């Protein structure tokens, strides 16, 4: 009897702990303090995306970079100061963009409910809404309640953002260090179904893979020849669609081309070098599976290292810590 009670109590305690751990973010966190917050983010995001179709790629990558460095705390948005060089000025900062649009969303929110909605939440919501514009409905659920950090350091970028030359075990290690699984790694790599990559991040695969003037044998030779027409030499920095002909369409086509050995980066190709990952990559060619899984993995990515409760602050301007 006593043992059963103890079991019950410990289950309740563990349950509550579990909720606090994964559940410090909530659905519609701003329901009371700013009832129209999520509508405003969607409206402003959609108005920008309608005239700027590359924005979905910019925002989803911005959210990824935010979450992988110091957790999803809006640190990617901060400007450099006299004292410190911020994440966005890391070399290479790999062409992050869309900061002006985040500022616009923030200023609209500040008009309606000043000092309430965090910049970290804006990034998470805007990434979802930008991608969802194409479908005219939210494609995944975004929990909210993140607060903003006060620190952004370029020096923390290299150790936290995986590089396009990473092999499978380095990718797995990078994601595991953020509490993400191999499954999340494969699913989230599907974000490369939209957007572009610059030649300098993969031209070694076209011209000098092992230092003998050779191409990467794991890259489809026909595709490599096509890419050489875009990237003329090892220093060319032309931007190339990652999912050709479908690079503004959020769909499962990345996994179709990946399985034809047409992944653009070594890190894309690396997903086929592990048996479990390859199995997942094959599965995700089905768009219904990709959409479902992507939403769930984004939820896990969006919860990395978040500041909640009394931690951090709600910035007044997204590019600046509060005075
Ligand atoms: C798995 C490890 C990853 C590596 C090594 C990687 C690397 C890269 C690189 C090198 C670029 C090209 C940047 C440029 O040339 O401007 C890129 C672009 C992009 N990445 Fe990733 N990435 C990874 C995972 C992710 C994840 C998890 C997401 C989001 C969930 C993401 C979203 C994007 C998007 C949308 C672009 C296109 C950006 C644009 O068009 O400006 N990536 N990635
Ligand atoms: C942050 O930097 C951007 C680009 O240099 C600039 O446009 C913006 O005004 C800066 N933000 C603030 C609050 O000064
Ligand atoms: C810059 O550094 C000085 C000296 O360490 C410090 O007093 C000041 O608060 C810092 N300013 C900012 C904006 O971090
Ligand atoms: C990237 O860094 C360079 C040099 O540090 C800087 O001039 C550029 O403005 C940065 N790009 C963005 C989008 O912040
Ligand atoms: C993956 O890359 C890391 C870092 O470069 C290296 O130490 C490791 O041996 C590589 N693993 C495989 C299986 O090639
Ligand atoms: C990925 O990394 C985690 C953490 O280091 C490890 O437990 C797991 O075995 C790795 N998975 C694969 C498939 O290598
Ligand atoms: C290819 O790589 C080798 C070894 O790193 C180097 O010696 C050679 O100069 C490179 N070729 C070109 C065209 O850059
Ligand atoms: C590489 O190609 C670019 C684009 O075609 C060209 O502008 C540049 O001069 C080339 N560089 C070299 C070293 O050939």
From TrEMBL:
Query: Which species is this UniProt entry from?
Result: Vitis rotundifolia (Muscadine grape)
Give its localization: Secreted
Q: Which reaction does it catalyse?
A: 2 a phenolic donor + H2O2 = 2 a phenolic radical donor + 2 H2O
Q: Which cysteines are joined by disulfide bonds?
A: 34-113, 67-72, 119-318, 199-231
Q: Which GO terms describe its biological process?
A: hydrogen peroxide catabolic process; response to oxidative stress
**Positions annotated as active site in the UniProt record:** 65 (proton acceptor)
Q: Which GO terms describe its molecular function?
A: heme binding; lactoperoxidase activity; metal ion binding
Q: Which PROSITE patterns match?
A: PEROXIDASE_1, PEROXIDASE_4
What is the protein name for this chain? Peroxidase
User: Cytoplasm: present as a keyword of the record?
Assistant: no
Tell me the domain of life: Eukaryota
